[in-house]
Structures are given as C-alpha cells and as structure tokens.
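Hi F.,

I've been meaning to write this up properly since the lab meeting, where we talked about keeping a consistent format for the predictions we share between groups. The idea is simple: the sequence comes first, exactly as it goes in, then the structure tokens exactly as they come out, then a line or two of notes. No screenshots and no reformatting. I'm using this chain as the first example so we have something concrete to point to.
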Amino acid sequence: MTDLAERWPLPQLADVRDALLAAYDDPSRGYHDTLHLTEVLDRLDDLAAAGVAFDQDLAGLAAWFHDAVYDGERDAEERSAVWAEEALAGTSYADEVARLVRLTETHDPATDDPAGQALCDADLAILASPPERYDAYLAGVRRDYAHLLDADFATGRAAVLHDLAGRGQLFHTAFGREHWEPAARRNLERELGRLR
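Output, unedited:
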C-alpha cells in the first residue's frame, strides 16, 4: 500500500488519502479495492505515456475518489462524489473531481472532455484484461454484490453487459479503442455466453 500512497497528488491532504486507502482496503470489498484503484491509476499512466492529452492531476484525483464509497448500492458514485466535494473543499479541484466521479456512473463523457474520457477509459480497461484477470474481476464483482441472489445478480449483470456491448465504442480515446477495445469485446461476449 505504500507505493499506492505515494501516488496521491496532494501531500497536504494526507489525511484524505489515508481515509480513501482505508475505504479501498476494506476487507468486505471484492473488485472495488486497492488493486482496482492501482489498475485505474496505471491505465491513466498508460494513456499519458501514449500522448493522450488530459489533466493528469485532475483525472488522478477523480480515480482516487471514483469508488471511494462502494457497497453494491445504486448511489455509490453520488456518495463518492459528495465525499470528493467535502474532502477537497477549498481546493481548485473539488467541483471537477466530483463531476468526473459522477461520470463513472455512465462512462459517457462528452467529446470535449479529455479528463472524463481518460478516466472512463482507465476505469473500463479491466474489460480488456487477459482471461484469468477478467475471471478474477468477475469473482470480485460477484463478491461486491454478495447480498444479491444468484438469479438477481445474473439478471443485473446481463443488463450491464448488454448496455456495454451495444455501444458503438467502449473507449473514448484513440489509444483505448486501438489497444483495449478488441479484447474487451471478446471478454464481454465470453461472459454473456456464460450468462445465457
């Protein structure tokens, strides 16, 4: 966790960082844990290294907050956004970070929103994982929704997958479309096949 802590961009708000790390490290979490946060930050780094232009501090802060609250309930993104607004009050980041966190509900940023596109792509990049990582992701998501009966979970998950699969594109950056889209489509089809 030390390496992850060092990636926090606002050293003057170390207490906020520590509270976020504690939330992501909650043992009741399945997929939406410190590994997920690390992977989203890694994917943002990949996008930046590939020359995708976006505000890296802004997107990085939004990544830290985007699943700050995660309990399998529908308003988790909103509660995470409110946490960002409160924790970052008085900084120049509060409003934009909260907006970006809310965007991860739909993963549908505007074409003129480079930070939103980068964050959404980084968050959905798990869909392009190798099969064994994708299967671990699925197991983690199921754990996050352990309170649901298998049939209810399968129905909800199928709806999410059909929504994603029906999009003209999953990723909004050229890098994401080139490097992540094909594998993500294969994984979605494989999972949908299992649910059928």
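Notes:
The radius of gyration is 16 Å.
The mean pLDDT is 95.

If this format works for you, I'll send the rest the same way.

G.
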